[in-house]
Structure prediction request, 932 residues.
Amino acid sequence: MKPLDYDAIVVGGGIVGSSAALFLARGGQRVALLERDFCGSHSSGVNYGGVRRQGRPLSQLPLSMRAHVIWSQLREWIGIDGEYTRSGHLKLARSDADFASLQAYARRTADFDLQLQLLDRAALRERFPWVGDIAVGASYCPEDGHANPRLVSPAFAQAARRHGAEVVEQCAVQAVEHDGQRFTVHASNGQLYRAPWLLNCAGAWSARLAERFGEAVPLSAAHPAMLVTEPLPLFMTASTGVEGGGIYARQVARGNCILGGGRGFALTPTTARPGQAAVLEILRNATELYPALTGAQAIRTWSGTEGYLPDDEPVIGPSHTQLGLLHGFGFAGAGFQIGPAAGEALAQCILDGGPAHSLAAFCISRFQQPPHQKENLS
Amino acid sequence: MKESAAMPLFKRVAEADREPLPFTLDGQSAQGMRGDTLLTAILTCSEHLRGSDFNGEPRAGFCLMGACQDCWVRLADGRRVRACSTFLEAGASVTRDPGRRP
Amino acid sequence: MSEIVIIGAGPAGIRAAQTLAAHGVKPVLLDEAGRGGGQIYRQQPANFTRNAKILYGFEAAKAQALHTTLSNLQEQIDYRPDTLVWNAEQQVLDTLHQGQRAGRLNYSRVIVASGATDRVLPVPGWTLPGVYTLGAAQIALKFQGCAIGEKVVLAGSGPLLYLVAYQYAKAGARVSAVLDTSPFSAQVRALPGLLRQPATFAKGLYYRTWLPLKGIPVHQGVKLLEIQGHQRASGIRWLQAGREQQLPCDAVALAHALRSETQLADLLGCQFAWNPLNRAWLPVRDPQGRSSVPQVYLAGDGAGILGADGAEMTGELAALALLQDLGKQVDGARRDQLLKRLANLQRFRHGLEQAFPFPEYWAAEAADELVVCRCEQITAGEVRDAVRAGHWEINRVKAMCRVGMGRCQGRVCGAAAAEIIACESGRPIEQIGRLRGQAPVKLLPFGLEISS
Prediction:
């Protein structure tokens, strides 16, 4: 087959890759997006659906604030509202120590205008009476919220396609070469794709491509345990999180509550299941935090495959070994909100010669340093 | 949800000679028989078991074998059970969820 | 401590348990129901008085034999009724006892005999009170001594249509009509296949001819148009020979044959294949019932609709295969005899499918407003919209439009959804994927207890 030439090839149709493709296409670039399965069908599509800035490390907040603006314009970018709602994000504390952590975070992030409201026990009871007594306080971020990842993530890919990107699903990358000028991607559909730019947005499977170009990364896969209930009378007025980890929950307009907590396991390299213990944990303990779930039934559980790097921070930005290669992966299960901004930043590397916000904190080279130099990066 | 007529859905055609069991349905006194499931006890004296979650329309079960999940009712202790698979006990207090109108 | 486990105490599970016990193996027999017998041989509550002949008609002897067998096995097996298996992982099953207590069971080998439910093709008005499946109508009568209404119409197709009509009329319930979507000509053409099981065929013929003799109208080759009614069913409309007909009624029993419960086989990692006869994805099994997973065996309607006799045979065969795989001596002649009878039954099944063909026109003619997913209130039009937006793989369509996301987990809507997706996408139905099994296979309650 004749090779197909593009300005950029994006490997991976999750929210990062799809949004990169969208921004590139809107910027006039000829883009090919190659997705092994269906766009937005892995971590981007099966995550909890939280669209939140609160709780992110400071390093991520600039990009997260930019994402917040993109989310506010979601319908303009992807044509649907994806059930996105700014319900507010309520991060619960189950102990005084946890509450102190929330207060410390609010102080540390004061410059970022997250508008965090610290609620003590009385204030929490008054404003969010549906939260169980086990919570001693909370930090409330009024403009954070949630959306339906199953709708939003694929919609980025579809929007990219509408703007002229070639989106190819059910198409795995089998081999990649570089001849000094451009990349040649050998795809499972028998096609060759060529471009001077290659974006490695392959989620939990990105290490292969990174290593191919001499940038091995310690990327590991983890699997969340997710559960959805039957439709219930509406009672959750915010999406929740739990300081120090716990059972987080949100309720959609149709009434179903989505809960997450604990871990699952890989069934195959591309599929995962929630662990039985995690599911039972949620069913046993969720009513402590959300008493209105008493008597409710769980319909379905699921998991997914998320990419983690040891510092729980993503890799975003140019390769240090291969010209034209950009990376965007390893979001540690927290890529949904920030993903569109990461995609935009990668597109800016191509369109504008560099990202609008510094990506230094996410540089892949932090894993390429010799050990005694690693401390300098923290 | 308004009941247009008091005509029950189900008709007893056999096993009429069983111990009567009183129960309460949505706060009203009712009577079934020992060996009745909640579904039978309710549908031999009324017309629905619940309202649809999305338009409040009446539902009265469908498969009678625990598959369709359209027969959930609520017991006094807050537990919800499938009416087709749960036997009536004397004095049971059953309430029906009205569902949600759009 | 690892057990040999049988999931399901219908005819297949009971025969499997009996066979294992006869060879000195003590299996754990798990059943979701409180009493054994499955659906077709469901036992009435203990205080009911009807005898087996009234309950099971021509199958009375078979039903009684199975119930007695289970009863007599109590000492030799570990029988656990009221126990749902909600998840399966490598060598472990997750159970829920009496809807409240979660437990785990390690297994070394498992026979899955999970049975079947009615296959439903929605008709406008099918969510009204008063509308039930054929299986439900039968359960109401057999298990509760009730008819689903005063004036019952039975509609759809399959042998159950005539059996339930007959049972209802015999019990004194009023059957207003039987509406069979299969044309009489189909049944004539199927005769050679049907004659493979002469006794079964004779019974079917008996029911079929008995009904009009009792003044019950039987209409064949119909197209169901609508179940009428406001808060409950009050009538039914259909097309017959190009003309619209209507009948008042207060209950409709509706189904087009059966569909296998395959969720556990899926969670156990069994390989599936499209089965044209069942028009469904079924776990692959060898003639004796071995699945593609070494420790997993499949028996009964849960691996393909064969009926109660077939379930008994495949239950015994699966147990024999398991025993063989354990290195035990089994009666080869008995096994071969069962295999031969099963092959004959398969040919009869082909005949049944010919006699009661699947209404392939259904998806194309379903109106956009027709509710396909009754749990989530998703219409045929909404499913079609998802397909028109470019999605064709059934799990993807489910994610987009919510069909199959409700409490029934796709049991009621799955077949219909697949038909609509295939029709709208123009893809053959066996190429749109199958609904992925996810735990729990039935709903789990918050606040459940955990057994240590």
